[in-house]
Amino acid sequence: MFYLQKSFRPKAIRKCYYHTMPQQCRNIGWFARIPRAERDAIFGLVEDFQKDTSKPKVNLGIGVFRTDEDKPYILKCVQKAEEKILKKRMDKEYSPVAGFEIFKKLSMDFTFGKSSVFNKPGRHVTFQGLSGCGGLSIAAQFLRMFYPGRKMVYISDPTWPNHQNLFNKLGLKTDTYRYYDAENISLDFDGMMEDIHKMPYRSIILFHASAHNPTGFDPTEEQWKEITEEVKKRKLYVIMDNAYQGFASGDLNKDAQSFRIMAKRRVNMVLVTSYAKNFGLYGERVGATSFLVDSKHEADKILSQLILLIRANHSNPPLHGARIVEEVFTDPCLTKLWIEELKIMANRLKSARKQLLQKLKETGSSRNWDFITKQIGMFSYTGLTKEQIIRLQKEFHIYMLTSGRLAIPGITSKNVEYVAKCIHKVTS
């Protein structure tokens, strides 16, 4: 059919043309009217920081380890593992849908320990996940489809910004339980226990295994035991987000006490482990997710469904990151080096906390900043208001989340005094 060019068509014809035959005439712009999504709080902040040409400027937003020179850190054990992989001339063919068996077995040894009753055939279902987000995503889809209890996920208030977004987008509703005492800047253990006690039976609850993001406050070993007993009484299903094992304290076993205590008490659980932080493999997207089960019969059914979900999602997990982790876990020399480097990274964060606390005291601040060294891991939950944080960014070019979360790796010997003075200015 012949159409006149727009400039030669009378208005009546143009109206008919656009309103009666849009599908034949227009193949672009179909999504022009969709709502604009809010940008990601963390990576949006990184973009703002990168665009800022001012000096000095400090990025206290993203949770990525940095040296005291504010440089990315590639672990020596990772570099040596890559050298070994290169010499082996390994192929680049597809990995199994759920990942290689050796990688999954090594991950179970690392998380639950070789002697765990669940580290046996038929007592767990483990797959290689795309770090934390990928593992949580597949686990959430599985629970949405097959969990027989109440499909409500209770998350701590506050929590990692992506938790609520991830579960909601995958069809699971979320609610919160108390975790942080803003008045005393501490763990609200009593509030948390009270909220857990009120949760409907067979609901789902998410815990941070260690180095709680964003508060940096973890329950003690005894408190984890109390939490475990209440979880059992309410028959809750646990999602355990294990992002910092070994990185939080420098002790692999201490950072695993939360989920190992629950495993010993036979709590129903899925453990989502990421190797981003403790191996520095942020961009490799490697992790392992383990469902604890009662029998091989149950395990086989779960695995069959997980394989379908993974196949539809990303089909096969990537090779390189998993091979690095496997090399480090199977080579005693590399394992020893890795543990040493974990302690170095953990101590670097502890040192940065002490430096920041000392400099804040030297400013003459009337505030009590002692909580900074009582917290653990990547972040400090500062108690700063949104207005104070916006002022830090606009006036002093210091970037951190408006929630008050401060990324400790961004603190260095060179910028700590500047950061402390600026924080003092906006809080005094």
UniProtKB/TrEMBL annotation:
Q: Which GO terms describe its cellular component?
A: mitochondrion
Q: Name one GO biological process term.
A: amino acid metabolic process
Instruction: Give the EC class as a word.
Output: transferase
Q: Coiled-coil segments, which residues?
A: none
Per its UniProt record, the required cofactor names are: pyridoxal 5'-phosphate
Catalyses which reaction(s): L-aspartate + 2-oxoglutarate = oxaloacetate + L-glutamate
Domain Aminotransferase class I/classII large: where?
Answer: 56-421
Q: Which PROSITE patterns match?
A: AA_TRANSFER_CLASS_1
Q: E.C. number, please?
A: 2.6.1.1
The UniProt keyword set, sorted, is:
Aminotransferase, Pyridoxal phosphate, Transferase
Q: List the GO molecular function terms.
A: L-aspartate:2-oxoglutarate aminotransferase activity; pyridoxal phosphate binding
InterPro entries, from UniProt?
Aminotransferase_I/II_large (IPR004839), Asp_trans (IPR000796), NHTrfase_class1_PyrdxlP-BS (IPR004838), PyrdxlP-dep_Trfase (IPR015424), PyrdxlP-dep_Trfase_major (IPR015421), PyrdxlP-dep_Trfase_small (IPR015422)
Which Gene3D superfamilies does this chain map to?
Aspartate Aminotransferase, domain 1 (3.90.1150.10), Type I PLP-dependent aspartate aminotransferase-like (Major domain) (3.40.640.10)
Task: Determine the domain of life of the protein's source.
Answer: Eukaryota
**Extra information:** In eukaryotes there are cytoplasmic, mitochondrial and chloroplastic isozymes.
To which protein family does this belong? Belongs to the class-I pyridoxal-phosphate-dependent aminotransferase family.
Q: Its quaternary structure?
A: Homodimer.
Q: What is this protein called?
A: Aspartate aminotransferase
Species per Swiss-Prot/TrEMBL record: Psylliodes chrysocephalus
